[in-house]
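Example S7 (structure tokens).
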């Protein structure tokens, strides 16, 4: 299922316009991104937790040229599903 299909299904099940469902989805997505960017975590009860993982700059070797390269530092988002969510999936 992709984003469009999820919006259509949700719209049909809740009997609300697709435009409204998409606007709500986009705003939720934006709030999660902004919260993570500010360094906070996002915990959605019964679903999971979004966190940020800081990766330091590191040196690696290009195995073909034997040249040292620097991999820049980066911030990676992480998601961990809640035990409640996992249990619901395993029931099916």
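Recovered sequence:
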């Amino acid at each position: 299922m992709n984003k469009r299909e999820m919006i259509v299904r949700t719209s049909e099940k809740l009997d609300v316009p697709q435009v409204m469902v998409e606007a709500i989805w986009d705003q939720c997505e934006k709030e999660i991104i902004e919260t993570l960017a500010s360094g906070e975590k996002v915990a959605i009860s019964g679903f999971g937790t979004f966190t940020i993982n800081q990766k330091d700059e590191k040196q690696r070797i290009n195995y073909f040229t034997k040249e040292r390269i620097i991999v820049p530092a980066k911030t990676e988002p992480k998601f961990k599903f809640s035990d409640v969510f996992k249990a619901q999936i395993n029931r099916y």
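Notes on this example. Residues 52 and 77 are 5 Å apart (CA to CA).
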